Structure prediction request, 521 residues.
Amino acid sequence: MNAIDSFPILLSLRVAALAMLIAVPLGIALAWLQARRRYPLRRLVDAFILLPLVLPPSVVGFFLVVLLGRRGALGQWLERFFDVTLVFSPGAAVVASCAVALPMLVKTAQPAIEAVPAELEKVGRSLGLGPLALFFRVTLPAAWRGVLAAIVLAFARGIGEFGATLMFAGNIPGRTNTMPLEIYAAYQAGADARAALYVAVLTLISLAVVLVASQLAPKQEAR
Amino acid sequence: MSGHALDAQLSLRVGRGDESFLVEAELALESGVLVLFGPSGAGKSLTLQALAGLVSPQRGWIRVNGDVLLDHERRIDVPAHRRRIGYVPQQQSLLPFCDVAANVAFGLARKERRRGNPRVQALLEEFNLSDLARARPDSLSGGERQRVALARALAVEPRLLLLDEPFASIDHAARATLHQVLKATLDHHGTPAVFVTHDPEEAATLGDTVACLERGRTIATGSPAALLPGGQTVLVRGTSAEMVGRVSNGRVQIRVQSAVVEGPASLLNESQGRELELELRARSSEPARKRSPDEEAE
Prediction:
């Protein structure tokens, strides 16, 4: 066996972390919106949030290419005004990772926010807290366990992203070959030992995540 | 009318669909404590939350110390966080992630929230909570929790304090102490309050004025002594159909069609099939309002 190539490990961690930078604020905002607001088309928005979770990753990848590829509406715009080409770049891996992590985050954080007693927020408002202060000083601290569990689970989902990444970012060694892609490529090439290494790393990360998440989740109710 | 601690007239929808009904609340308080009294499901809590701006009424207006907080016709609706109205609900409402002192200081400006703020210390002392300053809410008894909730509401110096059955889940003995504490503090701070309860004893103990709410209507307002003993209020509702005749001294007789009489079972059950004579005393002098908030004595 050659020297261990740590690039896919570091790339995967970096991609998932960057994806979280987008997914966490957006996901928490969406979870709050769905938990606390009643507005027209709320169910439709709910369905769209859930979609990447139920669709095959290849379909998600296809949508990303159509939307953000060189000929995609948003892709052309990005290229023209920012000179950014996402497709087949590490950035594409971040977007793909974010696309599948986001629904996981929203759907796990939403019940945690819903479980915050309405009385706490009512009292917060009567004490002079505006909407933003109310969220950051009452809702979020009261729901932090569930929200943190959601972030951890979303990170795990994001780091394990395969299908959409393959379609949108490709598998370019030294550029977009995240661990899941590398496992597939190594296995195809008969380099089982190399595949096993990344399998072990991903399994360990996922195991740690599940343990942390289960530690966080149940105490939410025993308030 | 300014100078009154509270003047309000609110129409609120309670419940959904077929079960829903309209609450018409008419409240006035010069100073002291106004008790909103009535059975559960009468819309008391919702009325209180509308005063705080936590729910929106269909229409109406609210004036506190002469300041207009809500006026549908003038499209004024001050949001809850700008009303400076304290709110203490029945359910445990302390922030579980803050200790007692931090809970009391919660509504203060950032600079005033630091530990050892004299204002917070004074409130902790006033509510006999100094020894519990660092305790977590989940380690407190029900009575202690509500004392913290009261101290927290008063810390921001509200112009009106709203209390929604705050002592309902607290045992009888502890409740008496809490009544004393509440009375003393409201006096001390000079804060007018609206107190919701379905317990006549509590209403009599705390109320300077009592407003009786029954299935959505304010049926009477007055002193606790006049309204509360035994809940003898009788309500007559119907359509005045025709003038029967003049009696004397400007008095008339009218016939009321499809009249419904509502009152204590002890009085009305026996009257089935018999001629019923009720003595009504009008409280409202507004003839336009087709309501008769009255009293009864057989």
